[in-house]
Amino acid sequence: MSVVGTLVGAGLLACAAPEAPPPVDSSPAAATPSPAPVTPIDTPAIDSGPALYHCDNGDVIEVRFGYYDATVRLADDTTLTLPRAQSASMPGSDVYVGRAIALEREGDRLRLTRDGEASRCGRRAPGAS
């Protein structure tokens, strides 16, 4: 019995003994290259300065376009900053919307809607009268 008891006892000790932790890899990890910056295709271009637009209702407006908004100076000297409506903008055309005014730009042409009335506006070249 003592041989059987010794074997059983040794088996129980073997089951109860904790395993050694796996060895730790101390070699440095390979550097992961950082991805190149991505520019969304619907990011509007920034103009270098304000642009004058002559509208079919006789108004002349000044607009400065940014990445996320457009600052508009209307014919009555009211200046508004309109946020870009990303959901309505597409590559090649941008929409900016405020409370009572909306501005749609496509190339050198604008559609200005103010209090429900729309005007079409075009950009004049510098020095044009």
Run of helices and strands = HEEEEEEEE
* SS summary, helix count: 1
- The CATH topology of one domain comes to Lipocalin
Separation of the first and last Cα atoms: 117 Å
CATH architecture field of one domain: Beta Barrel
Question: How many E strands?
Answer: 8
Shape: rod-shaped
Q: Stretches where pLDDT falls below 50 for ≥5 residues?
A: 38-44
Helix content: 10-25%
How much of the sequence lies in strands comes to: 25-35%
CATH class of one domain: Mainly Beta
The pLDDT mean sits at 75
Sheet of most strands: 8 strands, antiparallel
Structural class: mainly beta
* Radius of gyration based on Cα positions: 35 Å
Q: What spatial order of strands do you see in the largest sheet? A: 4-3-2-1-8-7-6-5
Describe it.
The chain is mainly beta and 129 residues long. It has a domain at 51-123: Lipocalin, CATH 2.40.128. It has one helix and eight strands, in the order H-E-E-E-E-E-E-E-E. An eight-stranded antiparallel β-sheet has the order 4-3-2-1-8-7-6-5, with no helix packed on it. Strand 3 (69-73) and strand 4 (79-83) form a beta hairpin. The longest helix has 15 residues, at 2-16. The chain starts with a helix and ends in a 6-residue tail after the last strand.
